[in-house]
Specification:
The chain is mostly helical. The chain is built from 6 helices and 2 strands. Its main location: membrane. This is CDP-diacylglycerol--glycerol-3-phosphate 3-phosphatidyltransferase.
């Protein structure tokens, strides 16, 4: 249990706290931010989400810098990322802040790519994340963060940046998924 793995596990422990803040009937007041109102619970949940998202970069940095890459970390890190983003997007659907069809597309792509990676791993092949996949993740995290913040600070000019980023994330998610399968279809074709 090295430092990167502890950081990853801390991200997993932040997820239920984040969910409770969003879906429990807590009324801690709100702030007027331009054309929107930002509940305090959403602000705190957004801060937790952003901190948890940054731990993904931090655990990877320490694992690479100090050669602390472990099989546990290889398993937990992508799992924690997918759980955090999926939890955020599903809660946003519950709150009426994100269309369910977009979240279904995003989560379906994650299941499909994870399935392909499992087939590859069964044959001893490691499929690395692509640059487009990293862009997809960045857009998903950015859109969720801005939606949780009710588009702050863009709310002062009436720009729904979180919604715009969510649609862009969905587009890049589909494109990167198709690209990933095209480049790695040989894994499915040649699997035993």
């Amino acid at each position: 249990m090295n430092l990167p793995n502890k950081i990853t596990i801390s991200r997993l422990f932040l997820i239920p706290i984040f969910i409770i803040l969003l879906v429990a009937p807590l009324d801690w007041g709100s702030y007027d931010i331009g054309t929107y109102e930002l509940p305090v619970t959403h602000l705190i949940a957004a801060i937790i989400f952003i901190v948890a998202s940054l731990t993904d970069w931090l655990d990877g940095y320490y694992a690479r810098k100090y050669n602390l890459v472990t099989n546990l970390g290889k398993f937990l890190d992508p799992l924690a990322d997918k759980l955090l983003v999926s939890a955020a997007l599903i809660c946003l659907v519950e709150l009426g802040m994100a269309p369910a069809w977009i979240v279904i597309i995003i989560i379906s792509r994650e299941f499909a790519v994870t399935g392909l990676r499992l087939v590859a791993a069964g044959d001893g092949i490691v499929l690395a994340a692509s640059q487009m996949g990293k862009l997809k993740t960045t857009l998903q995290i950015g859109s969720a963060a801005f939606l949780l913040l009710h588009h702050f600070p863009f709310s002062y000019i009436g720009l729904p940046i979180g919604t715009i980023l969510l649609y862009l994330a969905a587009l890049v998610t589909v494109i990167s998924g198709v690209d990933y399968f095209k480049k790695n279809w040989h894994v499915m074709r040649d699997s035993k």
